[in-house]
């Protein structure tokens, strides 16, 4: 007896139908399947934000609008979620820049980095999103794979197994990349000199 396709397979098929045939119904169904996960991603990112600032639903909607405007060919669920993470980061950076410009630094948007490595439930220090964006950009010049891993886990809530599959590496390699990235980012954000 054939088994029914998993939700991941369904999302991949819907993404292909939308991308290859322009099937808007497939796009809408795919968004229905992923919306709760996208909303959870946004809520995790904004957990420490002040109530008057961007709300998770608004972050998801703005990120999706930016994604739908582009003509990116989404390969599968992991690819879509990793691009959603990039768009959420972009939205947060844009809002932080606007707030900093409006208040000359007095209203910077703060996020927590503790989610970047769920297994090491340590500090919940607030990090300015602009500083985090600059640090992630700098980390990418040192170790792109580690930067992607921390961004996918931090901004999209991807599990270590999903990151390993997307990067074609083992889970222990992802764990090492995350430990390196977390230490590198912590030192960079504290003002330490890094090569």
UniProtKB/TrEMBL annotation:
Highest taxon of the lineage: Bacteria
SUPFAM superfamilies: Sigma3 and sigma4 domains of RNA polymerase sigma factors (SSF88659)
Pfam families listed in its UniProt record: Sigma70_ECF
Every RNA polymerase sigma-70 ECF-like HTH domain range: 10-189
Name of this chain's protein: RNA polymerase subunit sigma-24
Organism: Stenotrophomonas tumulicola
